[in-house]
Amino acid sequence: MIPTYETTTTACGRRRRPARGFTLVEMLTVMALVVIVMGIALPAIDVARFRLDGEVQSLALMINSSQRLAVLRQYDIVLAFDESEDRIRLHHDENNDGVMDSGEELRFIQLEEEVVFGRGGADALPEGGDEITFTERQDGLPSMTFRRNGSASETGVIYLTSLVASRTSGHSEHTRAIAIERATGQVTCLSYRTSDWEIGC
């Protein structure tokens, strides 16, 4: 059967079809459904964990770049971890004496808001359970040095977690670690999931 449409006649005598669109009731129904779906989906999104993963990936990239820069420029680069300020200090030690001399470049990398140094209830890796496992110190801060040959001064781990996990239990899956190998300076990112550590962030 061929559908028929009601038409109207214009002042010139031409026929035109009525404009087709959504009624107010249909639009309100769609909007109500969207609000309901968002109400169900949003609580399931763990914003703190997504923010943590992004920050850890950025830091791992920065640390890896520091190792390459030490090889390229043929001088030591010292990373010092300021736990109280939640930041990392990069020192370009151009004369390789381990001292921050006048004129040597210093940079500070502030951790993303809601991201802190810490294990957040996760089990410790074999390298140790302190927030920063490096024993070397620069100005009293735990630190490690990338040498001109690309090696690190020692093997160690930096634990990072969300602010939520650092304050409450039950969020150990928020904990991440950046491990640095001494001989090669290799940087590895690890995630704590289902009561065990896995490579990758």
Automatic annotation (TrEMBL):
The keyword Transmembrane applies. Keywords: Membrane, Transmembrane, Transmembrane helix. It comes from the Bacteria. InterPro entries: N_methyl_site, Pilin-like. The chain crosses the membrane at residues 24-45. SUPFAM superfamilies: Pili subunits (SSF54523). Pfam families: N_methyl. This is Type II secretion system protein.
